[in-house]
Queue: 2 jobs
Job 1
Amino acid sequence: MIAAALALIFCPLPLPAALQAAAPSTTQRFGAVSSSQADATQVGLDILAVGGNAVDAAIAVHFALAVTYPYAGNLGGGGFFLLRDAHGEAWFLDFRETAPAAAQPDMYLGADGQPLAALSRLGWKAVGVPGAVPGMWEAHQRWGKLPWRQLVAPAVALARDGFRLNESGTSSLQQSGELLRADALAAHLFFDGEGMPLPTGTLLRQPQLAATLETIAHDGVDAFRSGAIVDELVAASAAGGGILSAPDFRDYQPQLRPVIAFDWRGRTILAASPPSSGGIFLQQVLGSLDGFPLRMWGFRDARSVQLIGEATSAAFRDRNRWLGDPAGRDFDLAALVAPQYLRARRRNLSPQRYTRPDRGLPQPFTEHLETTHFSVVDGDGAAVSCTTTLNGAYGAKVMAPGGFFMNNEMDDFAAKPGEANQFGLVQSAYNAVIAGRRPLSSMCPVIVVVDEKVDAVIGSPGGPTILTSVLQVLLNRYEFGMSALQAVAAPRFHRQDLPPTLRYEALRLSGTMRNHLRSLGQPLESRDFIGDVNAIFRIKNRWQAIADPRWNGAAGVVTNP
Ligand code: GLY
């Protein structure tokens, strides 16, 4: 499958006419968009073309994805919005879900004290208080230029008039079919009378969602604070055994958090602070790899792979042990990225060693794409890197009466500190289920700044593989010297602490490399795809926007605002 993916670099998937000349695409001045869905990318380009800034375009893309990419795009989820504005100031807006006020630390444990995974993953009890609408509203109030209604309007039109379902839309409906059909609204919208998913090419209209979006366009965030949308949602939650309440919606607040900014060999990496683990992870891994001759060894060298895997495994150990909602932290985060700490970490890394995790058997683990990332830049040099999610595919597999899926973000908490979640991550009491808290996240929107200008905007879905996917794009581009397209397309690998397996896309490891890594004791496992990076790079003062050739995304540029 990877071979097929790489072939796509040279033979891109069919795209709508406006995007065809633009994957990858370059322009001088006016901006660019990369997302996982062509209609959403087009919406962002249209907003830039009429004079919207990067924040305007990002808000419009977010709402469009809620219509055209119900797998992960959302009104019922949350995410992270990283901005570097036209004046060079960086901002991190956290609109992640919170645990409802009625949440209890043991709410996902059975009578035997063990986690009941289905409870935190499926159905209304798995749903956190969504932050998407308040988050987009907050971004608009702070940094938007065009009127709010203008930014929501394209999503209203896509929901009301319909969009054509693409191949991955149909196949993801197929994969989640059994669970989705249990929800009456989802069964009615996305499946035919025989329970088959709508075929590729279907014009999918979503009237309930169109009405919800019209209310949001008209009332702004108030539509998600109280009123019919919230009342119906809370009633559906109660009927389905959930714990969402009207005050949860009234009280939800997006948070401005510190931007993690650190120097990496003369570049500034801007990333998200907790509840994202992204910034700390990148700072740790890039800092601990400093001084090793990765560039000399090269991308296709077993030493590079093993060393990076050891570094990411150690960083995951710290992530899982120490990180969670900042409200629960009782130590200074600086300790995790202090120079002496990273020096000690570096001394313990070796490209010739496999470090076995302290304990535990490999946990079941599958890479998920069930989040989405989009990148936007505008003609004034502002950039938005936004990762947004329902957590699992179609979230908790329940739809609000307003026609949108609800997240299952509660599974990102440690249901029982010390036990694995759906991603095989074993996390600590810092990430316990506590009312009002936000669960630890791997979402990792990044902006790279060189000589005071945005040089790259990067992010990916994929649960914990988000962290290693973003890391590898950075290393590919800036350490291994790849072109922007190669940096995104090059086959990836992933290693976290537990389970200890190094997972790799087929073309990443040669047979010789695999034999060498096995001889060190490193367990290996091949995967189909890791990550779905939607990125934008500055190449000689032009934008090159790239949608990951592994999937059906689309990237484009605007040249005529
Ligand atoms: N729900 C995936 C993450 O936040 O890491």
Job 2
Amino acid sequence: MKVLKFGGTSMRNAEAWKNVLNIINNTGAGTVTVVSATSGTTNALLQAAEVARSGKLEDALSITAGIKASHNAILDEFFGNADAPDRKIANDHLNDTIKKLDTYLLGVSTLGELTPKSLDAISSTGEQLSSFLLVECGKKVGMNAVWVDSAEVLKTDSSFGEAKPNFPLVAERAEIIRAHSNEGAFIILGGFYGSDSNGVVTTLGRGGSDYSASIFALASGADVIEIWTDVSGMFTSDPRFIKHAFSIKELSFNEAAELAYFGAKVLHPATIQPAVERNIPVYVKNTFEPNHPGTRIFSDTLAETPVRAIAFKKDITVITIISSRMLLAWGFLSKVFDVFNKHQVSVDLVTTSEVSISMTVDKKARLDKIIDDLENIGTVKIYENQALISLVGKDLLKSKGIAAQAFNSLSKFPIRMISQGSSDNNLSVVVENDDAIEAVQNLHDAFFVNQPTPENV
Ligand code: ASP
């Protein structure tokens, strides 16, 4: 059985939905599909929530009216007449969901408070609409499509906004997916959301539909995961900014995970973890160019070049803490990490000297509180508007000359941090935001363009 996942741009309008249904149909009976909200919908929902919180209920409701209209426009393409009898189920779901959404927004604006729990109820609406309505459109074109509500299967803890799946429970609940699949139905579920032990809706965090797909794949015993997006696989670097970037044929799980963590937006970083657990190959493919092979991600690859890709993440913050105690004092690092643990903020890159430590974080949330706590340990310096650049590959430690070549390409840029060695897959540096694109371009030219074309990159 295959699990396919289609992202927001793949779901952007009626034509895209027809394309998606075609791809599902061609994949074969029993296929499980996970979909995102239509493009822009999750952002619009988050905006509506914020606008409602600031007391502008009318403005928030006009956003939800827009969401209703765009979904109605898709239904028009499939059903024609708004009153067609076979459109009733779709109409009712759309009307009821928007009504429920408006009630949440009324609550938010009345209280002037937007809790993570309310935000999850609101932001998950996009997937609740897209998945259910896609099933109705599938039925309309003659497919045996079945909707399964992700809240019934993807059971999580109650950390709203970044819920953690309860894998054993999801595996139990996935029986419904397996049963429909064995009957040859096309199962369609919404990505991004699930529910906690009280049945309250939770979300996995932005971009979480990829993760949903791999969770469902693990739980339902799938043998392939296909992430369908608007680019043909994972690239050697972001092709929107870096000239000559190209699609990579194969990546190992480790390389893909490093790439996703260090900025490649094509895949949510957590997607790989369930796939690794049961060695399920993940393909990244292009909905708009379905015959392109895309990228295959698996336990090992036939890679011939050590550097496989260059990822980058802008707008990160570097925090440096200089110990106020004497040299050779122990316990400094542990106190620093306790602070991050307390605030549940993860750190990407760490470098240390005897008396100081620098680390990068990519979220600004809770930063003020973290700084307050760190100031009890030492002198804190903050450098904003930094960019993290990572060379990702295989055997980077064993291969000679990689660091020399990298630093040669970066010779004209000040480098704030350097990290290599904790894994064989990664060499990272931090530079100023404004230098990032040119620095990555230089690295990309050095490792990919001014080199003989590697056979199996
Ligand atoms: N719709 C959600 C988002 O935009 C989840 C996803 O598409 O992966 O973050």
